[in-house]
Design goal:
The protein has 12 helices and 15 strands. It has about 375 residues and is of the alpha/beta class. Keywords: Acyltransferase, Cell inner membrane, Cell membrane, Membrane, Transferase.
């Protein structure tokens, strides 16, 4: 357990050193290199004008993620709380007849601080976690002595359990950016579409629908770092359900309000959001790279070109990587193949020429993976 500011500073210094070493040895680990390319792709797509270079952004994000998930998990609650400044509407703390709330936050900044503050304020609440098997001790080491009530989002009866919790007068804390997997097109109708930095994201409706059914207000919360040992927690004004407003309207407006609050801080502190590495999973099909998984190849192409819509060539110090925007995977390629793919960008070659130039097995692999794309040109003769 980290109990003093000196221990905390030593731990953060060691973490910074570890992250720096990660940057220096990035190409020695294809898993980490792929992770870097995912963050890089998200940065270019969502905030291309951000002044920090790609590697620095990735390392800053890694530091922030590990600080939240590892170090803050080990901090004694008084030490963690000593770093907090609270803003916004905290009238719920002093209400006489305390009603339940649904506290909605994100994996952004010092997200461990939110639960710590609610407990400090004496709020009785349960935590909605992503999956079964997550215990209160996994959320924070101090929970062993002061256990949290945990609800599991993947439980078939979770909405009923949440309803019962609220009806008993107990609040719930939810991380509403908690979609861990790719959202299939067939399932996308069950999600609301919200705007974030000009892109359409899919957001689960369950929590906001439950608020409308039960009449329990939602309190949006953002907790973000303003300095090395400083965190600001902003409590939004409770969004109270109005039964005169249709449920679908309330769900849409409330989710947009929560994500709008997140967007305000992402604009200047994007490295503090945990979910850039999987943001592609949240995007509506129309907003994804290669939303239709590529156009159908012509039956009888005349030329082959490099599929820039789906793939990106990235030249690092030691290797060149081919990054698949659709699957978010990366793999190394030879210098010769890199040169040839670059050549095909501006000068597509006839199919007969490519067949004669490239090994048959390699060519088939390039076509199967849609790295090479068949096109038809009028000047094929």
């Amino acid at each position: 357990m980290i109990t003093t500011i000196e221990e905390y500073r030593q731990a953060t210094a060691a973490l910074r050193q570890s992250v720096q070493e990660l940057g220096e040895n990035l190409e020695d680990n294809i898993v980490q290199m792929t992770e870097f390319l995912r963050y890089r792709a998200a940065k270019h797509q969502f905030f291309p004008a951000h002044p920090v270079d790609d590697l620095r952004f990735f390392l800053d994000a890694q530091y922030n993620n590990q600080l939240s998930a590892q170090l803050e998990h080990q901090m004694a609650r008084p030490l963690l709380l000593s770093q907090a400044t609270v803003d916004g509407d905290t009238a719920f703390v002093v209400q006489k007849n305390r009603e339940p709330f649904i506290f909605c936050t994100f994996h952004f900044g010092s997200y461990q601080m939110v639960g710590a503050l609610l407990r400090h304020y004496g709020i009785d609440f349960s935590v909605l976690t992503l999956r079964q098997g997550v215990t209160s001790e996994m959320l924070h080491h101090a929970a062993a002595a002061d256990p949290l009530d945990v609800l599991h989002a993947d439980s078939p009866s979770v909405l009923l359990e949440m309803h019962s919790t609220l009806q008993a007068g107990k609040s719930i804390m939810v991380f509403i950016d908690g979609n861990p997997e790719v959202i299939n097109e067939a399932d996308s109708a069950a999600y609301a579409r919200v705007n974030l930095l000009g892109h359409t994201l899919l957001a689960k409706k369950g929590v906001t629908s439950l608020a409308h059914v039960t009449g329990v207000p939602i309190v949006p919360i953002i907790s973000y770092r303003t300095g090395p040992e400083q965190t600001r927690v902003v409590f939004g004004t409770p969004i109270r359900p109005d039964r005169a407003v249709p449920r679908a309207t309330y769900v849409q407006q409330t989710l947009q309000a929560c994500y709008g609050q997140l967007e305000e801080y992402l604009a200047t502190r994007p490295e503090q959001w945990l979910y850039w590495r999987m943001i592609h999973n949240y995007l509506d099909e129309s907003s994804r790279y290669l939303g239709t998984k590529g156009q159908p190849a012509p039956e009888f192409p005349t030329h082959y070109t490099f599929n820039q819509e789906r793939y990106e060539l990235f030249a690092a110090k030691k290797h060149t990587y081919l990054y698949d925007r659709y699957t978010q995977d990366a793999f190394t390629i030879s210098a010769n193949l890199r040169a040839y793919l670059n050549h095909l960008i501006n000068a597509p070659e006839k199919v007969t020429t490519v067949v004669a130039r490239i090994n048959a097995n390699l060519l088939q692999d390039l076509l199967d993976k849609q790295i090479l794309q068949g096109i038809c040109r009028e000047d094929a003769s």
